[in-house]
Design goal:
Blueprint (H helix, E strand, L loop, with lengths): L16 E5 L4 H11 L3 E6 L19 H6 L3 E5 L5 H11 L4 E4 L5 H5 L3 H7 L4 E6 L14 H7 L19 H24 L3 E6 H8 L1 H10 L16 E5 L5 E5 L3 H11 L14 H6 L1 H12 L4 H10 L3 E4 L3 H5 L2 H5 L3 E4 L6 E4 L23 H7 L4 H9 L8
Parallel strand pairs: 1-2, 1-4, 2-3, 4-5, 5-6
Antiparallel strand pairs: 7-8, 8-9, 10-11
Length: 406
């Protein structure tokens, strides 16, 4: 068989329909992963403004950067779920759906009868996902849970930053952690449904997800008795492992993982081979104790070099290194360009650059990187597909049960 001419394998979630009552980042980012892999994702939004992440900023040519990132490839229907007619439309969508995802405030889905327990009882083949801040029970169940708050509760902020000042992660780490566990939970539940014929509930909380990601400092503290100290860009137990300024104003991060690498660094990069045997530097334990002296000799040597020359010397010596890039430099990263990782997705304001999904499926169809939807853009088409007449749709529109649409 000529594999080069064979038709590509279909996307793994082609034929799967996902309905999501979602907002902000955690649930939308999870369902975007499903859309990228071929699922049809119907995003249910409030008629009065929709997903509030639409209003976070206007940085993406007038659209909100969070929303653009987490919502490509979806269909948007604007429904008032507090009106029984809007809720009935949702149930008509769910009747043919495979997956439901929601991250409403704790208790809101249950009040509407669309929590995972209620939906799985009504639709036995449905995989129903509840994404929450702190889980469905316990003293924090009804506590407001935004990303930075959960970063604090999970201890991430306590291990991030400098010795003088803790800082939050620069990305919504709690939201992303919950999103990726919701995504993988859906995949696992769909696999189980393929065996049993039944869907089932999936529960993910932001705190649980981020607490899992805190595994190293958590186990270090629980079993070693001490919390890892904040070290900025340095490593708590390895030296040298930090970023150092170069002569042209850039910064280069390097990591010496063992004493053999230190000998190469001393001789080939620092041009001070005598440091390889100096008792103050010869072992990682000694270099960690003498971190200030170690950093000083490395900083003095790299400070005489431009970033390109420093990187060249480090790579020639087999020392792990990286440039301390800005976000703009990431957008122009030569590795992403060389691997053709950029595409364009359509949006209400025209084409926008976007990265391919990280999951590669060689030999398969290209990821589905559909347009970023306008609020309620697909409402009319979806209602007509459910069998509603124009007169019925007009009545719903007049009463504010559905939002504006094309």
């Amino acid at each position: 068989m000529d594999t080069e001419s064979a038709a590509p394998e279909p996307l793994p979630l082609a034929g799967i329909t996902v309905v999501a009552v979602e907002q902000a980042v955690s649930a939308p980012f999870a369902t975007r992963q499903l859309a990228d892999l071929g699922a049809r994702v119907i995003k249910v939004e409030r008629p009065d403004g929709g997903d509030f992440a639409r209003g976070y900023d206007t940085a993406a040519h007038g659209l909100a950067s969070h929303f653009v990132w987490a919502n490509r490839g979806k269909e948007s229907i604007a429904l008032d779920l507090k009106d029984p007619r809007g809720l009935e439309v949702l149930h008509r969508l769910l009747a043919d759906a495979d997956v439901f995802v929601q991250n409403l405030a704790q208790g809101a889905a249950a009040r509407l009868g669309i929590d995972s327990a209620a939906l799985c009882a009504r639709y036995p083949r449905l995989v129903a996902v509840d994404v929450s801040g702190y889980g469905p029970e316990g003293p924090y169940a009804h506590k407001r849970a935004y990303d930075m708050l959960v970063q604090c509760e999970a201890g991430l902020v306590s291990v991030t930053g400098t010795p003088e000042r803790p800082v939050k992660a620069g990305i919504p780490a709690a939201d992303i952690a919950a999103a990726m566990y919701a995504f993988s939970g859906v995949l696992a539940a769909l696999l189980r449904r393929g065996i049993t014929g039944r869907g089932g509930r999936v529960e993910v909380s932001m705190l649980d997800a981020l607490a899992e990601w805190m595994g190293h400092p958590l186990h270090h503290t629980m079993h070693g008795g001490e919390q890892p100290v904040r070290t900025g860009l340095a490593h708590a137990v390895i030296a040298p492992y930090d970023a150092y300024a170069t002569a042209d104003g850039d910064r280069v991060l390097l990591s010496v993982q063992n004493d053999r690498e230190w000998r190469r660094l001393a001789g080939q990069v620092l041009e001070r081979p005598e440091l390889a045997e100096d008792p103050s530097y010869a072992t990682n334990a000694a270099r960690t104790v003498n971190r200030e002296k170690t950093d000083a000799v490395v900083a003095e040597a790299l400070g005489r070099l431009g970033a390109d020359e420093a990187i060249g010397r480090l790579e020639a010596a087999g020392i792990a290194c990286a440039r301390l890039n800005s976000v703009a430099q990431l957008a122009g990263h030569p590795q992403l360009a060389a691997r053709d990782r950029w595409r364009e997705v359509d949006s209400p304001v025209g084409p926008l650059r976007a990265l391919l999904p990280p999951i590669g499926l060689p030999g398969g169809a290209a990821p589905h990187m559909g347009a970023v939807p306008a609020l309620g853009e697909h409402t009319g088409a979806l209602l007509r597909a459910l069998g509603m007449t124009d007169a019925q749709i007009s009545d719903l529109r007049r009463d504010g049960v559905v939002g504006v649409f094309a």
